[in-house]
Amino acid sequence: MGLSNFKADKDKVEQGIRVPIDEETGCYVRIKRANNDAYNGELIRLMRGHGRRHQQIMAQLRGGNEKNDSTLQAAMKTAASKHILVGWEKLIDDAGDFGDQGKELSYTAKLALELFDHPSYADFYEFVMAVANDADMFREEEVAGDSGNS
To answer: So what's the pLDDT on residue 145?
Structure first.
């Protein structure tokens, strides 16, 4: 196996990837890779306001215990709404939870955060973060005829 199997596609990492929610209706979300520089910087900025707890909370994050801390969860959702979920197309508010029922929602980081925070849409946040954390989604495409063996 060659090292190129782990090579990230710079454009995918920087611009995000277009992920289908419902191809039939043309509903897509644009997701950037988790732990990108802008996300990490925003998370650090948000956590600095918590004084001494900052180090404890960041240790929880490194240890994978972020779900146990509501302050950290809120900061992660805020950072993700700005720097991980960076757009969508044809996302319809079919339940009427965010305005007029049946209307297409225009992307804003504020609305993305509202979606992430809404208890009925917890799976949407989990979906976005699962894609963002899937390194394979951000890999370079294999060149035709290149088996990766040398």
So the answer is: 47
